[in-house]
Amino acid sequence: MISQxxxxxxxxxxxxxxxxxxxxxxxxxxxxxxxxQKIAAKKLIQEGFxxxxxxxxxxxxxxxxxxxxxxxxxxxxxxxxxxxSFRGLAIFAGPDFWQVYELPHPLxxxxxxxxxxxxxxxxxxxxxxxxxxxxxxxxxxxxxYDYYVGELNEIQRISxxxxxxxxxxxxxxxxxxxxxxxxxxxxxxxxKNVADAIFQFFKAERFEYLVxxxxxxxxxxxxxxxxxxIRERIIGWxxxxxxxxxxxxxxxxxEVADIEKRYRRQQDEKIIQDLLNEANxxxxxxxxxKASLNMLQSGAVQTLVxxxxxxxSGARCPSCxxxxxxxxxxxxxxxxxxxxxxxxxxxxTYAIDAAVFVHxxxxxxxxxxxxxxxxxxxxxxxxxxxxxA
Length: 389
What we know:
Elements: H1 4-11, E1 20-26, H2 34-53, H3 59-79, E2 88-94, E3 97-103, E4 110-114, H4 120-127, E5 132-137, E6 141-148, E7 151-159, H5 174-205, E8 209-214, H6 216-225, H7 228-231, E9 234-239, H8 249-280, E10 285-287, H9 289-297, E11 301-307, E12 314-316, E13 323-324, E14 338-340, H10 343-353, E15 357-361, E16 373-377, H11 383-386
């Protein structure tokens, strides 16, 4: 599991000297068997050695990079020797720095060498995931699971003594009705206990969405006991029971991943449509790289929307740090601009540092009229504020 502390350290790691290797690897056994993965890993590291020879790097720094390449190669060959459940691998190695993420999402294999970690592919993967609570409930039992980045962890079990459903006819049906009410009262107390446990976890941990697993006949009753804040976070349901033999972990993971994927696509389509509507009416939205960079750096952006995997060259001012889609000199301090192979990665990092939400959208969710990047705005600055850029 990726911790927020690790991400924060990665995002802000900028060594005074030396270089950082960022390695992304497609470790999906559904596409490449272990032998093929070992060959692909060896080829990727060789590309890193070859690219290093073309760089003008001093001897000491070059030696450090070679040592890290060898360390990464040794690590990859060892983890790829055995059958593994992760489908993507991200490794970052620099001066006194080493982080490895095993991910449930396939990645395009690539290696980068720069002064700072290249985080955009990792952030694109993490954007696909939200923290979910998965609740499996029946009339007597409840199991709560924490789900994040493809991992499922049990956090609580709720069990109540609920009488079995029986049919006993008494005088004029009075005895039967009394027993039914007694049983229903116990069932509702159980559902309330589960709902209370979910709400307490929400207040303590702040999950974003809820997925229910239960019998269809009990679904509405369970939802009625949930706090309104929790009900509005439900993104899906599947038939299940809180019994590991009847509903194994593998099936829970498959069901939740499918629900999350469908919900993600719906969200992608909605945010793109909202963005295009705002941009076309010249209200709180812009599209295109230049406009998005200008608005981002003026502090006006609420959400930066980027096509996953899209890269674009650009430039950065080494003096004031301003980002450009193109140009030779900074319009603010007149310093000569330095070329960037991927200004989008820099823009994503800038946005995260500025507490701007970054939403990566899947390419197959995009209409033809969306130019890869855009921004939903908190406000629209006056034209003179952004005209210089």
